Amino acid sequence: MYTNFTEKLSTFGCTPISGATLDCLLTEYHSPKDKVSSMVKQDELLRLKRDLYCVSPRITGQRISKELIANHLYGPSYISLETALAYHKLIPERVEGIQSVVSKRAKTYRNSLGIFTYTTVPSEYFSIGVNPAQTLTGQTFLIASPEKALCDLILLRPNLRIVSEKAMRIFLTENMRIDLQDVSNPNLDIFDQCIATGRKNSELLCLRKVIKNDCL
Question: What sign results for the dihedral spanned by CA atoms 56, 60, 61, 62?
C-alpha cells in the first residue's frame, strides 16, 4: 500500500497538491491528516502553507520550481521585480526569496523553500506584459516580461523619484547593474500600456526613453 501511494504521489511531480487531494488519496488510512503530518516530518511532503503541499524531490526525482510554487501559493499572481529580472538574466545577483505581484492584498509566506512576497498593483495594470513560462519538467507558471518587470521595479520601488533620462540610466546601470545591451528587441507597447494606467507616469516615461534609445 505504501509503495502504491508513493507512486501516486510521484505523478504530481513538483505541482503543489491541496490537502483535499491528499485526503482522497489516503482513504485507506484511518486518519489521513495524521498520515500527512507523518510524511511532512519524514520530509516526504513539504508543507507550503495551510492545506497546500508539494511532494519531496526524494519521491519525484524532480527539482522543485519555486516560480511554480509562488504562482500556487497565492494568486492570481505572476513572478516579477528582481526575481523576474534575474530569471531573464538582466541582473547578475542571485535574488533571495521569490517576488511576485498581485492585484489584491499584499502577503508574505515563509516555508522550508524560502520567503515568498506578493506586492499589490492596480487591477488595470496587473495583466499587462505577463507571459507563460515552463519549468524544466513542463509545468507552466506566469512571469513578467523583461519590460513589465522593469516597469514593476519602477512602480513599486518606494520613494523612487526619477525625472530625467540620465538619472534613469544611472539607476538601471549602476544601482541595478543592468547591462542594457541584454534587453534585446524590447516591446515598447508594454511600456505604453503601463504608462496609460496613470501610475508614476514621469518615471515610466523616462524608463521608456532609456530603453528606446539604448536598446533599439
Answer: negative
Pair 186, 147: CB distance under 8 Å? yes
Task: For residue 158, give Cα distances in angstroms to 28, 102, 119.
Answer: 53, 17, 12
Count of C-beta atoms within a 10 Å radius of residue 59: 18
Distance, in Å, from the CA atom of 195 to the CA atom of 129, rounded to the nearest integer, reads 12
Of the candidates 84, 95, 92, 192, the residue with the CA atom closest to the CA atom of residue 145: 84
45-59 pLDDT per residue, tens: 999 999 999 999 988
Name which of 108, 92, 112 is nearest 100 in CA terms: 108
State pTM to two decimals. Answer: 0.92
Contact (CB, 8 A) for 76 and 50: no
Compute the Cα dihedral for 132, 171, 124, 189 and give only its sign. negative
pLDDT band at 73 (very low <50, low <70, confident <90, very high): very high
